C-alpha cells in the first residue's frame, strides 16, 4: 500500500491525486464513457471502477463518482460520505482551465436545475447582473466573465450588444435570451424552455392572443397511474432483461390484489432476467406493494430496500434500467386515506393535456381529493398550466383558488397542504405552458419516514437497518443552502454524541438527517463541511439577495410595456408605503453573520418614520434584525403587530386574525434608540379613542382570535362589488384570513351560490349556509342589488347587502357582528 502511495505521489498529471468510479447509464453511451476513462488515465487519474452497476461501488477507494444522473442506487451513500458526484463535462472543463473545478457546479442532482447552463451577462445594470449570476450559481449553473465556447446562454436586453456580435462572428452556439428567462426559472424553481425569451424576436414581448402550447413529451412517461392493472395493462418487455433484476430478489406483496396468472408472468420475467422471487421481506432487495402500510412495508423501508408499486415494476421491465421509485410520484405506493386536508376538495384541471393531464388527474385522486371534469362554483381549486383562459377568469370571479401544478406536487411530496400564498404556486410565465415541467418533483424520504415508518413505531422494533440509498429530496430551497445548513450544524455542534444502537441506521435517525457517527474520520468530515460552507456562502448569498428583490432579477431591465414593471424614481403614496414588501433575512445571512434565529416576527402598519426614506428604512431594519426582530409582511408568521394607533389598513386588519400581540410603533423607536430588544409588553397599544369608536377591545380581540383559529367566517360566502372602495383584493385578503370565501359580484345572469363542500365543516353550519353577503356602498349600486337578491333567494338563502364597515369591524373585533346596523 505504501508503495502504491509513493508511486502515485510521483505522478504530476492534473488528476494524479484522484480516484474515479464511472456510473454507466442508458443515457451515457459506452463510447463516451470509454473515451472519458482513457482521458482520465492519460492525465494520471485512477479509474477504480468503470462497470457499475455490474461491479459494487467501494466508497473507501474513490474520491469522485462520474455520472450523468443522480438516479443510481448508491447516490445517497456518496452524498453521505462527502464524495462528489459529477457530470462527465467536469473533466473537459478541468482540462480546459488546467485546474480542478468546483464539483458543486457539475452535480447531476435535479435540484440543481441550472446545472447544464453557463451564462455570460452583458449590458445589464450591475445589481441585475449580480442577481442573475447569484441565482445561476446557487442552482448549479456556471458564469463566465468572458465569452467562450462553453457559454450556453448570453443574458442581455438587445441584439446590439458587442458580446452578441462577437458570438455571431465566431459562430458560437450560445442562445441569446432576455433576463426574464432567468427570473421565471428562479421563481418556479424549475428550468423552463428559453425559446419564448430568445432574441431577436422574443414572444413574451409580443401581444399574442392565443395561449402558449405545451410540448408532448414530459417527465411522467410510464408513471401516469399507480396501479396499471386498473387500466387493464400487463407488463411488456421489448427484449430479454439483462440488468435491472440481475442478482436481485423481489417480493410481491399480497395487497397488490393481482391474479395468479399475472403474478406468474411477473415471476417469469424476474427469474429470466437473472433475479429471483421471494416471500420473505428480509431476503428481498425490492419490495412491490400498493399501499404505504403494513409490517413488511415498514421493515423494507427502514432497511433501505427499494420500495415501489406495480407501475414502477412495469417501468423497470420496460426499460431494463434501474430508477428510484421516489423519482416519480406515482411509482411509489399510495396512502389509503389520502393526504390530510385533501379529502373533500373538488379540484379541476385546465390547459394540461396528454400524459401531463392523466398524471395530474391520478395524482389528485391519490391525495384523496376529487378531480372534476368541468369547473363549477362548487370547486375549491383550479390547477392550470397558464392563466389566459376563460376558465381561469371564471374561477377568479367565483373565488376558486387558481394555482399551478407545483402546489399539488409539493403538497404530496411534503405530505402537507402547501400555502397557496406562495408566489411560486401562482406564477404563470406569459408564453410558457407549465405542463412541460410536470413530474419533476421527487418524493422526500425524510417526510415518508416521519409519516409512515417512524422510529418509534412498535411494529419496527425488530426491523433490520442499513444505510439508505434511495433517491429522495427535491425541496425547492436552494440545494446549496440546505447542504450548508446541514453541514454547518454538524460542524458547530457539540462533539459529545450519543452512540447509536445497532438497530438504528445512521442515516435515518429520528428527525435528523445525514448525521455522521463518531468515528476516527469525523474530524475530516467536519473540516470538509466547513470548507464547503465557505465555498458556497457567497453563491447562496447572491441567490437569496436575488430572490427577495422586488421585480426579481430584471428590476432595472424591464421595458416600459411590461405589466409587472416597477417604476423607478417615483414617490409612493402613503397607502403604497404602508404595504411595501419587506424582505426576510435568509438562513445564509444567519450563517455568515452568526445572527441567531429571530425572537419576534413583526408586521408594521402606518409607520410614518420610513415614508419616502428607503435608506433610513433599510438601515433601521438591519439594526432591528441584529436585535432579533424580523420585519415581515406575512401575517401568518407574525408574533407581533405594530401601529401608531388602531388603523383599518389591510395589513392591520388581516394580521389580527392570527392573534399577534398588538404594540405601539414607539416600541420600534425605543429599540433603535437603546440598540437593544426592549420588553414589548411595556408597549402594548392603548387607543381608547378608536376602541370606543369601533366598539372593540384589542385585548378581547386577541383572545377571540386565538379561539377562532382563523375560522371566524368559516362556511360563509361573501361577495364584493367590483367598484368597492379599497378594491376587491383588499377584502378578499381579510375574508380568507378569517376562513371565509370571497367572490367578485359582476351582476351576471346564471350565477349561483356555491353549495357547502361534502364532508366539510361548513356543510353542518346552518347559519353559515343560509346568509349570503354582498359588500357594497350606496353610491349608484342600487340597480345591481336586485339580481343579487334574486340569485340568493333562488338558492333558498338569505341575502345580506352590507357596508364594508361590517366586515372590517367584525374582523377587528374577531366576532361576527349583526348585519342590521350595516345593511343597505
UniProtKB/TrEMBL annotation:
<dbReference type="InterPro" id="IPR036420">
    <property type="entry name" value="BRCT_dom_sf"/>
</dbReference>
<dbReference type="Pfam" id="PF16770">
    <property type="entry name" value="RTT107_BRCT_5"/>
</dbReference>
<feature type="region of interest" description="Disordered">
    <location>
        <begin position="750"/>
        <end position="771"/>
    </location>
</feature>
<feature type="domain" description="BRCT">
    <location>
        <begin position="240"/>
        <end position="330"/>
    </location>
</feature>
<dbReference type="GO" id="GO:0035361">
    <property type="term" value="C:Cul8-RING ubiquitin ligase complex"/>
</dbReference>
<feature type="domain" description="BRCT">
    <location>
        <begin position="10"/>
        <end position="108"/>
    </location>
</feature>
<dbReference type="GO" id="GO:0005634">
    <property type="term" value="C:nucleus"/>
</dbReference>
<feature type="region of interest" description="Disordered">
    <location>
        <begin position="454"/>
        <end position="527"/>
    </location>
</feature>
<feature type="compositionally biased region" description="Basic and acidic residues">
    <location>
        <begin position="219"/>
        <end position="228"/>
    </location>
</feature>
<dbReference type="InterPro" id="IPR001357">
    <property type="entry name" value="BRCT_dom"/>
</dbReference>
<feature type="domain" description="BRCT">
    <location>
        <begin position="136"/>
        <end position="199"/>
    </location>
</feature>
<feature type="compositionally biased region" description="Polar residues">
    <location>
        <begin position="489"/>
        <end position="504"/>
    </location>
</feature>
<dbReference type="GO" id="GO:0006302">
    <property type="term" value="P:double-strand break repair"/>
</dbReference>
<feature type="region of interest" description="Disordered">
    <location>
        <begin position="216"/>
        <end position="238"/>
    </location>
</feature>
<feature type="domain" description="BRCT">
    <location>
        <begin position="342"/>
        <end position="425"/>
    </location>
</feature>
<dbReference type="Pfam" id="PF12738">
    <property type="entry name" value="PTCB-BRCT"/>
</dbReference>
<dbReference type="InterPro" id="IPR053036">
    <property type="entry name" value="CellCycle_DNARepair_Reg"/>
</dbReference>
<feature type="domain" description="BRCT">
    <location>
        <begin position="621"/>
        <end position="685"/>
    </location>
</feature>
<dbReference type="GO" id="GO:1990683">
    <property type="term" value="P:DNA double-strand break attachment to nuclear envelope"/>
</dbReference>
<protein>
    <submittedName>
        <fullName>Regulator of Ty1 Transposition</fullName>
    </submittedName>
</protein>
<feature type="domain" description="BRCT">
    <location>
        <begin position="759"/>
        <end position="824"/>
    </location>
</feature>
Amino acid at each position: 500500500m505504501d508503495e502504491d502511495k509513493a508511486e502515485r505521489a510521483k505522478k504530476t498529471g492534473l488528476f494524479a491525486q484522484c480516484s474515479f468510479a464511472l456510473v454507466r447509464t442508458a443515457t451515457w453511451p459506452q463510447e463516451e464513457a470509454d473515451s472519458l476513462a482513457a482521458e482520465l488515465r492519460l492525465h494520471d487519474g485512477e479509474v477504480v471502477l468503470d462497470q457499475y452497476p455490474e461491479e459494487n461501488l467501494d466508497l473507501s477507494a474513490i474520491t469522485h463518482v462520474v455520472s450523468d444522473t443522480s438516479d443510481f442506487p448508491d447516490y445517497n451513500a456518496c452524498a453521505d460520505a462527502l464524495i462528489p458526484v459529477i457530470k462527465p463535462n467536469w473533466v473537459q472543463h478541468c482540462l480546459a482551465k488546467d485546474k480542478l473545478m468546483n464539483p458543486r457546479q457539475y452535480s447531476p442532482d435535479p435540484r440543481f436545475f441550472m446545472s447544464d447552463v453557463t451564462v455570460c451577462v452583458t449590458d445589464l445594470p450591475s445589481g441585475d447582473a449580480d442577481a442573475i449570476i447569484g441565482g445561476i450559481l446557487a442552482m448549479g449553473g456556471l458564469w463566465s466573465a468572458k465569452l467562450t465556447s462553453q457559454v450556453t446562454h448570453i443574458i442581455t436586453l438587445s441584439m446590439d450588444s458587442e458580446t452578441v456580435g462577437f458570438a455571431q462572428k465566431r459562430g458560437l452556439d450560445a442562445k441569446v435570451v432576455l433576463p426574464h428567462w432567468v427570473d421565471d426559472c428562479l421563481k418556479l424553481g424549475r428550468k423552463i424552455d428559453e425559446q419564448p425569451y430568445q432574441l431577436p424576436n422574443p414572444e413574451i414581448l409580443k401581444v399574442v392572443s392565443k395561449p402558449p402550447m405545451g410540448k408532448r413529451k414530459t417527465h411522467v412517461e410510464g408513471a401516469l397511474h399507480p396501479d396499471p392493472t386498473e387500466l387493464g395493462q400487463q407488463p411488456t418487455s421489448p427484449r430479454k432483461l439483462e440488468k435491472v433484476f440481475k442478482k436481485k430478489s423481489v417480493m410481491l406483496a399480497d395487497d397488490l390484489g393481482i391474479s395468479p396468472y399475472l403474478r406468474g408472468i411477473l415471476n417469469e420475467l424476474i427469474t429470466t432476467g437473472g433475479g429471483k422471487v421471494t416471500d420473505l421481506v428480509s431476503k428481498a432487495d425490492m419490495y412491490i406493494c400498493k399501499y404505504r402500510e403494513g409490517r413488511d412495508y415498514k421493515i423494507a423501508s427502514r432497511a433501505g430496500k427499494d420500495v415501489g408499486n406495480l407501475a414502477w415494476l412495469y417501468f423497470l421491465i420496460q426499460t431494463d434500467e434501474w430508477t428510484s421509485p421516489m423519482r416519480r410520484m406515482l411509482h411509489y405506493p399510495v396512502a389509503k386515506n389520502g393526504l390530510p386536508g385533501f379529502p373533500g376538495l373538488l379540484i379541476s384541471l385546465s390547459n394540461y393535456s396528454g400524459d401531463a393531464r392523466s398524471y395530474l388527474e391520478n395524482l389528485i385522486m391519490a391525495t384523496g381529493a376529487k378531480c372534476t371534469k368541468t369547473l363549477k362554483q362548487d370547486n375549491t381549486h383550479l390547477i392550470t398550466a397558464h392563466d389566459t383562459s376563460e376558465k381561469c377568469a371564471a374561477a377568479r370571479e367565483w373565488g376558486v383558488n387558481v394555482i399551478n401544478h407545483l402546489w399539488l406536487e409539493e403538497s404530496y411530496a411534503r405530505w402537507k397542504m402547501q400555502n397557496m400564498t406562495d408566489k411560486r404556486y401562482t406564477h404563470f410565465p406569459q408564453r410558457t405552458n407549465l405542463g412541460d415541467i410536470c413530474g419533476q418533483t421527487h418524493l422526500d424520504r425524510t417526510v415518508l419516514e416521519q409519516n409512515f415508518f417512524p422510529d418509534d413505531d412498535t411494529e419496527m422494533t425488530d426491523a433490520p437497518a442499513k444505510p439508505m440509498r434511495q433517491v429522495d429530496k427535491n425541496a425547492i430551497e436552494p440545494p446549496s443552502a440546505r447542504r450548508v445548513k446541514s453541514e454547518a450544524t454538524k460542524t458547530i455542534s457539540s462533539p459529545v454524541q450519543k452512540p447509536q444502537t445497532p438497530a438504528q441506521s445512521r442515516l435515518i435517525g429520528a428527525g435528523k438527517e445525514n448525521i455522521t457517527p463518531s468515528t476516527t474520520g469525523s474530524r475530516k468530515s467536519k473540516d470538509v463541511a466547513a470548507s464547503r460552507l465557505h465555498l458556497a456562502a457567497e453563491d447562496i448569498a447572491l441567490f437569496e439577495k436575488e430572490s427577495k428583490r422586488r421585480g426579481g432579477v430584471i428590476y432595472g431591465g424591464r421595458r416600459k410595456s411590461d405589466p409587472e414593471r416597477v417604476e423607478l424614481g417615483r414617490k409612493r403614496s402613503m397607502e403604497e408605503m404602508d404595504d411595501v414588501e419587506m424582505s426576510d433575512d435568509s438562513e445564509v445571512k444567519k450563517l455568515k453573520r452568526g445572527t441567531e434565529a429571530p425572537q419576534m416576527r413583526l408586521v408594521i402598519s402606518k409607520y410614518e418614520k420610513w415614508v419616502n426614506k428607503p435608506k433610513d428604512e433599510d438601515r433601521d431594519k438591519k439594526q432591528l434584525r441584529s436585535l432579533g426582530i424580523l420585519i415581515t409582511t406575512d401575517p401568518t408568521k407574525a408574533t407581533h403587530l405594530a401601529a401608531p394607533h388602531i388603523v383599518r389598513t389591510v395589513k392591520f386588519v388581516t394580521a389580527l386574525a392570527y392573534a399577534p400581540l398588538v404594540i405601539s410603533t414607539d416600541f420600534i423607536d425605543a429599540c433603535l434608540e437603546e440598540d437593544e430588544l426592549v420588553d414589548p409588553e411595556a408597549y402594548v397599544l392603548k387607543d381608547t379613542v378608536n376602541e370606543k369608536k369601533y366598539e372593540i377591545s384589542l385585548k378581547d380581540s386577541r383572545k377571540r382570535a386565538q379561539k377562532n383559529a382563523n375560522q371566524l367566517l368559516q362556511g360563509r360566502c361573501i361577495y364584493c362589488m367590483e367598484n368597492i372602495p379599497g378594491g376587491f383584493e383588499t377584502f378578499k385578503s381579510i375574508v380568507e384570513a378569517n376562513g371565509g370565501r370571497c367572490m367578485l359580484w359582476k351582476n351576471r345572469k346564471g350565477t349561483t351560490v356555491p353549495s357547502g363542500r361534502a364532508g366539510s365543516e361548513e356543510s353542518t353550519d346552518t347559519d353559515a349556509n343560509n346568509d349570503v353577503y354582498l359588500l357594497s356602498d350606496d353610491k349608484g349600486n342600487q340597480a345591481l342589488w336586485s339580481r343579487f337578491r334574486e340569485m340568493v333567494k333562488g338558492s333558498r338563502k338569505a341575502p345580506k347587502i352590507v357596508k364594508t364597515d361590517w366586515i372590517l369591524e367584525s374582523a377587528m373585533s374577531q366576532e361576527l357582528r349583526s348585519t342590521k346596523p350595516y345593511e343597505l
